[in-house]
Amino acid sequence: DLRKQARQLENELDLKLVSFSKLCTSYSGGRDGRRDRYSSDTTPLLNGSSQDRMFETMAVEIEQLLGKLTGINDKMAEYTNSAGVPSLNAALMHTLQRHRDILQDYTHEFHKTKANFLAIRERENLLGSVRKDIESYKSGSGVNNRRTELFLKEHEHLRNSDRLIEETISIAMATKENMTSQRGMLKSIQSKMNTLANRFPAVNSLIQRINLRKRRDSLILGGVIGVCTVLLLLYAFH
User: Fold this and answer.
1) Is residue 238 in a domain?
2) Dist. CA 232–CA 224, nearest whole Å
3) What is the DSSP annotation of 88-154?
4) Cα 53 to Cα 31: distance, rounded to the nearest angstrom
5) Could you give the residue ranges of the DSSP H alpha helices within 42-88?
6) pLDDT per position as a tens digit, 148-174
7) What parts of the sequence cross the membrane (predicted)?
8) What is the pLDDT, as a whole number, of residue 139?
9) What's the number of domains the chain is made of?
10) Can you point out the beta strands (E) in 125-230?
11) pLDDT at 136
């Protein structure tokens, strides 16, 4: 009786896992009704949300069947370990081990298919989000691409002009600072000269007297030369 129940559960699990695998293969995470271009067997007949609900339902059913099959295997293990069946113990252990191997294979296949389905759904959700952003961008600005490019070029030109103006202003400010520094130096030299002139007034007066005497001597010497020249001319003509 336990073997019959185990075989019945194994048959149900086999059918469920086949349907579960087909569902995972035909999953359309994009939710846009796109058809597979490689095989008509994997063509999604339902949209993404319906497939998600079917996936959850089938996963719960398979987990329940796996739990029942595990319970049947445990009962068979208890029977083989009970007293009164020593002569059939080896054959029963072999049968039990075979059912355990089948349960392990079904469990591994279920978890593998479930993991693949979740990975595909996550990837499709990400791709769908990116695709939606691209489509929204194209629909919103596809017509104005040329105008957008012109605006971007104009913006770049304005930025370049702004940068040149800033460089020119920087050069002008540096020149102003240099001229201000030079003016300060000249004012400092002039103030020092005035200080020296005020500190030595006698020297300034002496220099003025020397200049006056030099000018007077020049006038006297010029007058003497002029008189001598006149006398020589008078003497020469007489």
Assistant:
1) no
2) 12
3) THHHHHHHHHHHHHHHHHHHHHHHHHHHHHHHHHHHHHHHHHHHHHHHHHHHHHSTTHHHHHHHHHH
4) 13
5) 48-81
6) 777 788 888 888 888 888 888 889 888
7) 219-237
8) 59
9) 1
10) none
11) 64
Report the pLDDT value the prediction gives residue 200, as an integer from 0 to 100.
65
- Whole-angstrom CA distances from 27 to 17, 24, 78, 110, 118 are 15, 5, 42, 16, 10
32-56 CB burial, b ≥16 within 10 A, e <16: eeeeeeeeeeeebebebeebbeebe
DSSP 40: G
Q: Determine, yes or no, domain membership for 41.
A: no
DSSP 37: S
**How many CA atoms are closer than 13 Å to the CA of 10, on its beta-carbon side?**
16
Domain-located, residue 100: yes
**pLDDT for res 38:** 37
Half-sphere exposure of 70 (CA within 13 A, CB side): 10
> In this structure, is residue 86 part of a structural domain?
yes
For residue 182, give both structure tokens: 């030079």
Using CA atoms, how far apart are residues 112 and 209, in angstroms rounded to an integer?
119
Residue ranges for the chain with pLDDT beneath 50:
29-46
SS3 202: helix
Q: What is the CATH number of the domain that holds 82?
A: 1.20.58.70
190-to-64, 182, 183, 184, 197 alpha-carbon distances in Å: 106, 12, 11, 10, 10
Contact in structure between 10 and 45 (CB atoms under 8 Å): no
Instruction: Categorise residue 130: left if φ over 0, alpha if ψ from -120 to 50, beta otherwise.
Output: alpha
- Measure the CA–CA gap between 151 and 214, rounded to whole angstroms: 81
CA dist 53 to 1, 45, 48, Å?
35, 14, 9
